[in-house]
Amino acid sequence: MDILHDQDNMVTAKISTNLKENIDILEALFVECSDVIKRTLVIGNYNKVQIYMIYIDGMVNKELLEEDTIKNLIFKMDDLPSDNQYEYIKEKGLRTADIGELLTMQNITQTILSGDTVLLIDGYDKAIKIASRFYPNRGVPETKTEVVVRGSKESFSEVLIINRSLIRRRIRDTKLKVKPIQVGVRSKTDISIMYIEDLVQEGLVDEIVNKINDYVIDGIFDSGMLEQLTESSWYSPFPQVQSTERPDKAASAILEGRVVVMVDCSPMVLLFPTTIVSFFQASDDYYNRWELASITRILRYIAAFFAIALPAFYISVINFQPEIIPTPLTLSLAAARDGVPFSVVIEVIVMEVAFELISEAGIRLPGPMGSTVGIVGGLIIGNSAVAANLVSPIIVIIVALTAICSFTIPNEAFAQAFRLNRYLLIILSAFLGFYGFLLGIMIIVTHLAGLKSFGIPYLIPFAVCEVDKNSETRDSILRFPTFALKERPAYANQKQKIKLRKKNK
């Protein structure tokens, strides 16, 4: 049995005033950890005292540690007093500004594992935290999944400190708060919750924290894991939490009264709460002229409907209601299907699965090879299938158009939900025809109407009577001019409803 930890993996050992006892505890905790660096020093000329320094190699800034800490302790502590040596070393022996006091062995171990340095002094039952963490990172990368023509090219990285600074750089407000928590019995993953205190709805931050703390889990390694733990309707294919890699989008969400949750080691942040409209909005909608942004949004909504409904609609019409098609087009479609041995349903499903496989292969293959496989693979398979009379040309066109439409949705998770529900409509249309198609649409719309994201109806502003639709619809299907977007959404604190007004002259 591990006598140093309790059932929640918390260190139970106490800090002693005897340095040797503390060293023995830390040696036992970090046994067989070759990357943990430990050093014992004796400082002071007349009033000597023994100190113990411990940190993890590769997680600290060694230059800072050696120049500003170790050298100063060795060469500048000759006049060490006989009493209150802890405070003297803390105030005059450490040149770095970011230091802290640790009162438990649990705090000491977590500080070490987080990349900071811990200094213990003989005769004192407390330790000094020296901020020295330095993680290997790729800086501020360029956005990959939410590319825009106009606007910032920055994206979040895997380092939590950098991600917080990207938001701070954009919102210079003392009311922008950062609430830190840790999740994971073993990973102790750092999480930052960012919000503006007078814009967020009362109780929302506490509700998010409670949702996160509802589970005891070994580790959290990406925001996607946290997203799944905080969703109320876990069975729904539609995401109830929005994710983004763009700092400007996250900052805009905060100014709208939303909460941003960052997970260390994850380049994607979460936005709480969310509505269906949020998934159709792209960052450059607000950087381009409103006419262009409005047309683009309308195209996205139309494309989203095609992405989920086009194959099923084709099946229901061809198999059950061919009379609604003009006669010349009917003859053309019949001629195209001449010699094809499979039914329309089989054709659609086979081609849909083939395109999904090509898309998945393109994602997994590195760099330019992935996009090449996606384009060339689609062309080769489509042409070969038509040439071999396995599928008709119209099926290839429909499936390809459906795939293109799904890629116009700015949020990948939301696009995947549409792709998944496409198969539901295909199956219903195959058995029930046009009635099955309409039934599937009704099921999906009813499901969406019942979804909520932290108490906020998912279909705002389309299916909720309690909100000011005149205000909400100005930034939904259409994007009104910037000067007309005067109010924050319904999920913001209504005491701070106005976000844009003219100055009093």
TrEMBL record:
UniProt keywords, alphabetically: Membrane, Transmembrane, Transmembrane helix
Pfam families membership: GerA
One Gene Ontology biological process: spore germination
InterPro entries: Spore_Ger, UPF0353/GerABKA_families
Domain of life: Bacteria
One cellular component (GO) term of this entry: membrane
Family membership noted in the UniProt record: Belongs to the GerABKA family.
Protein name: Spore germination protein
Species of origin: Anaeromicropila herbilytica
